[in-house]
Give the backbone structure.
Amino acid sequence: MAVSMNRIALAIRSNLPDEMDWALQTLVHSSFENPDALIFERFPNLAPALLEKLSSIDTVYDLEQLSKSDFDVSDDDLGFGVGSKSKGRQLLDKILEAALVLRNAAINPDNARYLAGIKLCQLALIKCLNLPERPSLIELRQYCLDIAESVTLFLHPRSSQDPLFRTLVAFLGTEDRGVLIPTMRAVARSVVAVETNLLQSVDPKLVARICSLVMLDDEDLLAVSLDFLYQYTSSSENIEISSDIVDWRDLIQQLIRLLLYQAQEWSTQVSVTEVAQVNRTPPAAAPPALPQDLLHGLLQLAEPERATQWMRACFEEDSEGDVTQIALWKAYESQFEEYVILGKRLLPAADFIKNVTMAYKHAAAMVVTLPNGQQKFIIKGIRPREAPLSLKGELYIDCQWTTSHGQCPNKFPSVKDLYKHILTVHVPLSLQSQSPVSNGNGILSPTTANTNAISNGSSDEVLIADAPTIAAIEKPIYFCKWKSCTRFDPDGVVNRHIVAAHIRTHVPDPEDNKPIPYAVRIGIIPETPKYPSTNRNDLKVQQHAFINKSTIVDERGDATGIPVTSVLVLRNIARSDLGKKYVKALVPEIISVATVNVPLRNYVADLLTFVEEKQGGAIL
């Protein structure tokens, strides 16, 4: 391959028509089909040969010796005539082929850097870009502008009088979009690594024209205009000297609009639970009385576990609740004091108070100073339960059956036990008798004995209150005596299954004796699948739609494209005193963009830092 490229370079320099035709056509095809294989650094003679051919335009284009018709395209040149191309046109075609090869190769940054290091490259570009306006030279000029766009990133002009830089700046006033886009890109790249303010020499009228291009709906033209303005506004001096010509206020407003350029809108639906009213019930004066089976279970535990489980059974967490330390200790002492003689020792008061956090980690002993100056020693974060909690973590349920002696005094740790108790004690199987008499338990029987309901400590061994003492009658009549229910009054029913099914409407659901935090029950904390709220009337669930907009991002999710360049230009403008004044007046609009355009937020925050730096801090 190296020998072939060397032969191509020699063929180009030979100026022999056939050799040049073969060499340049081979390079044109290669640079288009396989541009990565055309690396100038590997073939040192190739780039100089092409540049020499490009630079020969001044020897070919001689206005004094050649007429305009020698170069302008004719019907014959386009293939419509019968003649052949003129000698001048043939030479120009070879220069165009060399320029095309250089243009295709310069797209590769390595080749562009290599060309920038050859002095002849700049000279050839200057010659070609300064040729007179002729239709036959439009193609050559376009190729040279494309080459300049690639190599200027590696050229570092020392002053604004640099010949190539001045040549490119002269094209900024063109009306040709195809010329203006590569020109602005080339000028912007020329000053990227140059500390000198070269763009100060650009006519403010040209800058004003470029600012007006930002208003157009042309993505390519918009992108290169912003690139140029970014470099131009990098020096605050440029903003000040062009303020009489350039309307920076209008530009800033357009740049703010471009922060959402081609933004994709999307919304997020969020459910917000609002507490309309919280009805906090006053705490009970004392902890609930413990059923005998629960008390028996606690007595089987050793301290301090017994104190911990007793507190869990009698108290629940409440961030706003509190109990005095003395009241808590007295309740514990009175509950187990009678069992001390049986060897069930009590925790000392100090150890008992310290043990509070073992039961509830958010509870804490503290001292509160009252308005009158007195100190109150409390346990913050708990309140007495309404119903005791079993050792298995279930709330006891009251039997609310009404007997001839009042409400049934029994409590049960599960719904199943409660239902079994009702069917066994209050709605038993049929009794036989000669003269039916109501026994107050929900059936009619001949006579009853005045036997009280007594619990022996087990929910499964409850003695029947007013239990019948004689055999059942043939057709007993059943009633429902749950609280004040009158479902079967006054005649009752003889089908016990109907009453049993009806009783299920009174008995709580199996999950109702699961402990629910007090804050959830009253609606302070929104309900969750684990803790459904029992106070739904106090909760309002509203759907809110949050609108977001996302501009273009790269593969890493970072903002890129026109919105980023726009915010960077705004930041440059905000660095100047004049620009800071204009940008600061539009801060609310900038913030509104940051609230919806997530990828751009960090850039906007950086911009606002410059706007507010004199006040010592940023807005965001």
